[in-house]
Amino acid sequence: MDFYPGTDFEFANLPRETQVIWLAMEGNTDKTIAQLLEITTDTVATYWKRILIRYDSSSRTEVIAEFLRVYFEEDLDQLERKVAELEEKLQAKGLAEQHQLLATAQLNSLMNLLDVGVLFTNNGLKVNYINEQLCRMAGCVLKPKELIGSDISSFIDNCQNRPIRVDESTTQRIRSLSQSGQEKTVDQMTMTNGRVLERTFCNVTVRGSVIGHFIMYKDVTPFINENKEIIQRSKLNELLMQRTLAHLEATPNQQSKETVVTLSCLAKSVGGDLAVIMEADHKHGTLSVVHSWAKNEFGSEFDSEQSIPLSFVSWFRKQLSEKEYWIVDSIEKLPKSASMERSIFVEGRVRSAVAIKFNAQNPDKSYFVQLSTSRENVLEHSIVESILPIQRLFSSILGKLECVEAKSVE
Fold it and tell me: Tens of pLDDT along 344-389?
């Protein structure tokens, strides 16, 4: 972790909320922050609620920007005092040029500590200062010192990483912001490299007159992705609730159809286009498909499948005995001992899969639901844990079906 203030000991003695903000500025998700601080994600969420209330803000980005401003305010004050002292010495010696070089060096040192891109221009949009971080973020082929004194268009025209919408960062857009009269403007840009940058444009005024402009670029991609994941998890929780209600209201004869619908919803939620529930019958030593769904068709590919001996699929049997769920990003990563499983995947046109184990009432049988796709590395691992409650639902469904089958036999 390279963005802590001072030593690790100093960081350890910071308030928890301050630690959460520092770790978030490094691009860590709530889950990673929880792991680093050895707390739960719910606790991290609680800290964020307190932080947003304390800063009177609804945006984490605004909180971090304000935190940076306050945090570096003391450093800036100290820097200003040092510069003032140096000014007196340099003026006494008549070394104005050396003063300029020293002040620039100090500014560079401070600005390069930040994880944001910074650009200062005069009122005519000539570049007075630009830090290395901004050049890296924008993929600018020119170095900061090559841009000093040039028009801002030189920076924009030499950036390889550009906004997807051209009008978001043209010279004309910057000029319109400088002439808008607004003290501060904040907007977001989706770049060609997939990152999302938040741009803050501020007019710098002295005695009511604009003397220049300050532009800051912050990579907010981690926050955007985190929000997307929260929304996705929320939709999934709602889906699981709807599916549970549908199963509770269904008659025994309707349960099979509802199970297939549930399988299709789960597969779609993680990016899959195939889903099966497989039964491992330990008493008879067989593995078979009991429910299945395929994209655009309901299990027709599996209707004719026969049970196979459990002894043929030792790797599956091992997963069932040891894990709650398992993920295969690519069948090429399967161990050599899983040759039969590889053959099953190839026959079913499966390249990657997520499997979740669950049990029914019969102690001689165990089950797993497999959500898979014909593509590699495309399943959403981050929401697999949100699907785990489906174990209880499927266990309940199969238990009811087994009871109905037993009564039918009697």
Answer: 899 888 999 999 998 877 888 889 999 999 988 888 887 787 787 7
Three-state SS at 251:
coil
Summarised one tens digit per residue, pLDDT across range 119-177 is 888 888 899 888 888 888 888 899 888 998 999 888 888 888 888 765 555 677 787 87
- What the chain holds in terms of domains, given with CATH numbers, is 116-219 (3.30.450.20), 224-409 (3.30.450.40)
Helical ranges in 112-189 per DSSP H: 132-138, 144-147, 152-157, 171-178
For residue 27, what is the DSSP state?
A: T
The three-class DSSP label of residue 271 is coil
pTM value is 0.47
| Token representation of residue 375 | 């593509």
Q: Which two tokens stand for residue 126?
A: 């000539």
Q: Which residue has the tokens 């910074």?
A: 118
DSSP of 306-371: PPEEGGG-HHHHHHHHH-SEEEES-GGGS-GGGHHHHHHHHHTT-SEEEEEEEE-S-TTEEEEEEE
Q: 3-state DSSP: the chain helix, strand, coil percent, rounded to 5?
A: 55, 20, 25
Q: Which of 366, 373, 269 is nearest to 317 (CA)?
A: 366
d(CA 368, CA 7): 48
